[in-house]
Amino acid sequence: MISNAFSMFNLPLNQKRRHILHIDADAFFATVEQVLNPSLKGKAVLVGGPSGTRGIVSAASYEARKFGIHAGMAMYLATRKCPHATIVPGNFEAYRKFSRQFYKILLDYTPEVEMASIDEAYLDITGCAEMHKLDYPEIARKILEDIHKKTGLSMSCGMASSKIVAKVASSQNKPHKLTIITHGCEARFLAQLELKAMPGIG
Question: Which of 9, 12, 30, 109 could form a disulfide with 61 if both were Cys (CB 3.0 to 4.6 A apart)?
Answer without folding.
Answer: 30
